[in-house]
Amino acid sequence: MHAASDPYPHGGSYSMYGAPSNALVPVERSQGLTIMKEYEDYDPRLDAYDYDMGGGGYPVAPMTPVLPRSRRNSAVSLMSLPGADGFRRGTGHRIKFKRKGTLMGGIGLDEAQSRVRLSNNDSYSFHDLHSDHHRRILLKVKWAGYNSLTYEIPLDGWDRRVNLETLARRVSRACVHYLQANVIPILWDRVVLHHLEEVTYGVWQPMLSTR
Question: Per the database record, which ranges form the DUF6741 domain (predicted)?
């Protein structure tokens, strides 16, 4: 097996058990944080398949934390995070996701990975997201009844504006990994990302529901 296993190796479908909940699922703020470095779009083992297109299949193989490698943002690692006191209080800002040309807010995790066009793709600045000097934010993902995981997400953009479509794709990948890592019995292409909400300065929680 490759030393830096891809967090989303393509596998078979994951069965659905029980009825989905339509309630938004916020990230709990009291849980401890675990940072996992964000994985970049490209992996040499995926040349024959563009994972970004999504397909509704649920990945089944677990991700193994490894040491960072030299290739930019390609590895996944675990590291500690300072306590919440190390962050300034969040502003309550929200980063909204909405498909271009639609009135309804929210996009599916599968849509985000299929490079769907979003409204106001360059409406937010790096400052709005309170990114660090490396242009990264923390994404804390939590599903009811499961422990949280926090991911380090790099931001891309131009002229100090964040590329919202790229952010949505990376948030989607983190959420899919979270579902897979916790073996949560739900098809990931039935999960909708509504918006990100800042819980502490530079730490964002995805608001999710099922469809």
Answer: 83-210
Q: How many CA atoms lie within 13 A of 114 on its CB side?
A: 11
User: Rounded CA gap, 59 and 167, in Å?
Assistant: 21
What are the distances in angstroms from CA 99 to CA 32, 109, 168, 175, 183? 33, 12, 11, 19, 29
Torsion angle defined by CA atoms of residues 167, 156, 177 and 87, in that order, rounded to the nearest 10 degrees = -90
Strand partners, 95: 196
Distance between CA atoms of residues 30 and 153, nearest Å: 21
For residue 151, what are its two tokens?
A: 């991911």
Enumerate the β-bridge partners of residue 99.
118
Q: How far apart are CA 51 and CA 137, in angstroms?
A: 23
Please give the C-alpha separations between residue 66 and each of 4, 40, 43, 69, 181, in angstroms, as whole numbers.
Answer: 6, 15, 15, 9, 15
Q: Of 40 and 63, which is predicted with more confidence?
A: 40
Distance CA 139, CA 200 (A): 11
The Cα 138–Cα 145 span in angstroms is 21
Strand partners, 195: 96, 207
C-beta separation of 165 from 52 below 8 A: no
Token duo for residue 113: 């990975």
Q: Which of 163 and 9 is assigned the larger pLDDT?
A: 163
pTM, to two decimals:
0.62
